[in-house]
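Translate structure to sequence.
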C-alpha cells in the first residue's frame, strides 16, 4: 500500500502540515521534531507525490534558468552548483540556452517559461525591456552577473576591486608596459568587461602610467581568443612586459601564445588572470579568485528562500568575496626588457 502524508503524521504524532513543513525544510519545526518526522517517513517508505504537492501548493516545482553560453566554464560551473541546490530541495531545472541574438529575441518575445516555472535564475544580463518581461512573470528572480537591478536578487562580485588588485600587483612589481586582454560587451550587454577595463585604466592613471591603446586586445573570453589577443599584443612596437587577462581562460590562451613565441613566463612576460579556474593552480597562474560555484549555489538558495517565505524581503544585491592568489606567472620585469 502507498504510504500517505497522513500515515506519517499519525505515526509521528503530529499534524500533516507539520510533516509537510519538516520534509520540505521550511521553518516552524524544531530540529528534534524534524529529525523524528524524517526518521518515521524513512521507516515507512514515504515518498512525497510531486503531483499532489503541486496541486496543494500551486507550484510546478520547476526553476527556469536562462544562460548565454552553457558550454563555457563559468556558466557551466554556476549552473551545476545551482542545479545541485534545486535538486536537493526537490525542484527540477528548465534550461534555456540563449547564445544567439535570434534565440534570445525569441525567448523574450514568447516567454515560454510563463506558468511553467516557480522562479527564474538568469545568467545573462537582461536589458530594460527584457527585465520588464521577466518581472511580468510574477515569480522570484535572481541573477549572477551584473550589478543590482529592480526586482532581482543579484549575487556577484566587485569586478573593479578584483581588477585593481591584479593590475596594482603588476605595477608594484615594477611593470610599466602592462597590457590587457578583455572581452567586448557585445549583444549580451556584459558589464564585466566595461567595469574591469575602467579599473585597469584607473590603476594605470594612479601609477602615472600613460595608457597605450596598442596594449589592449579582445580575447572573447575564450582560450583561442586569448591566444590571438596575446599574439596581437606581441606584435606591438613596444610589447608589454606584463598582461592582465580578464578571465583565466584568456590567460591560458596568452600562455600558449607566449610559449609558441618561445618567451618565458614570468621571466619575459608576467601574466595575471581572473576567476581561479579549476586548472589555474595546475599551471601556476596568478589570478583573482572568485567563488564561481558559490555564486550559483547562493543565488539558488535565495530563490528557494523567497519561495518558502513569499512575504519576506528579498536581498537586492549580494556581494561575494574575492582575493588575489599569487602563483608562478608573475615577477618583476627584467632590467633589459622594454619599460
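Result:
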Amino acid at each position: 500500500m502507498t504510504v500517505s502524508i497522513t500515515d506519517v503524521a499519525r505515526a509521528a504524532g503530529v499534524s500533516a502540515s507539520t510533516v509537510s513543513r519538516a520534509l520540505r525544510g521550511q521553518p516552524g519545526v524544531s530540529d528534534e521534531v524534524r529529525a523524528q518526522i524524517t526518521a518515521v517517513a524513512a521507516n515507512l517508505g514515504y515518498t512525497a507525490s510531486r503531483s499532489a504537492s503541486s496541486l496543494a501548493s500551486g507550484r510546478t516545482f520547476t526553476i527556469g534558468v536562462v544562460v548565454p553560453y552553457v558550454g563555457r566554464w563559468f556558466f557551466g560551473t554556476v549552473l551545476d552548483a545551482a542545479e545541485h541546490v534545486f535538486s536537493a530541495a526537490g525542484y527540477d531545472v528548465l534550461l534555456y540556452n540563449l547564445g544567439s541574438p535570434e534565440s534570445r529575441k525569441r525567448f523574450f518575445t514568447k516567454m515560454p517559461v510563463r506558468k511553467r516555472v516557480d522562479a527564474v535564475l538568469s545568467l545573462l544580463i537582461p536589458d530594460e525591456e527584457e527585465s520588464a518581461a521577466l518581472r511580468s512573470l510574477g515569480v522570484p528572480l535572481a541573477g549572477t552577473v551584473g550589478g543590482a537591478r529592480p526586482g532581482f536578487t543579484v549575487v556577484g562580485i566587485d569586478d573593479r576591486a578584483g581588477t585593481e588588485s591584479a593590475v596594482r600587483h603588476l605595477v608594484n612589481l615594477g611593470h610599466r608596459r602592462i597590457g590587457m586582454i578583455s572581452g567586448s560587451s557585445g549583444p549580451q550587454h556584459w558589464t564585466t568587461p566595461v567595469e574591469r577595463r575602467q579599473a585597469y585604466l584607473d590603476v594605470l592613471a594612479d601609477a602615472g602610467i600613460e595608457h597605450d591603446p596598442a596594449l589592449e586586445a579582445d580575447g572573447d573570453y575564450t582560450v583561442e581568443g586569448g591566444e590571438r589577443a596575446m599574439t596581437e599584443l606581441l606584435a606591438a612596437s613596444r610589447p608589454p612586459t606584463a598582461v592582465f587577462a580578464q578571465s583565466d581562460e584568456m590567460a591560458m590562451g596568452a600562455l600558449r601564445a607566449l610559449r609558441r613565441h618561445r618567451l618565458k613566463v614570468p621571466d619575459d612576460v608576467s601574466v595575471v588572470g581572473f576567476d581561479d579556474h579549476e586548472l589555474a593552480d595546475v599551471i601556476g597562474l596568478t589570478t583573482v579568485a572568485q567563488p564561481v560555484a558559490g555564486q550559483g549555489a547562493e543565488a539558488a538558495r535565495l530563490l528557494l528562500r523567497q519561495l518558502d517565505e513569499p512575504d519576506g524581503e528579498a536581498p537586492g544585491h549580494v556581494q561575494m568575496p574575492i582575493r588575489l592568489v599569487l602563483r608562478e606567472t608573475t615577477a618583476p620585469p627584467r632590467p633589459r626588457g622594454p619599460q
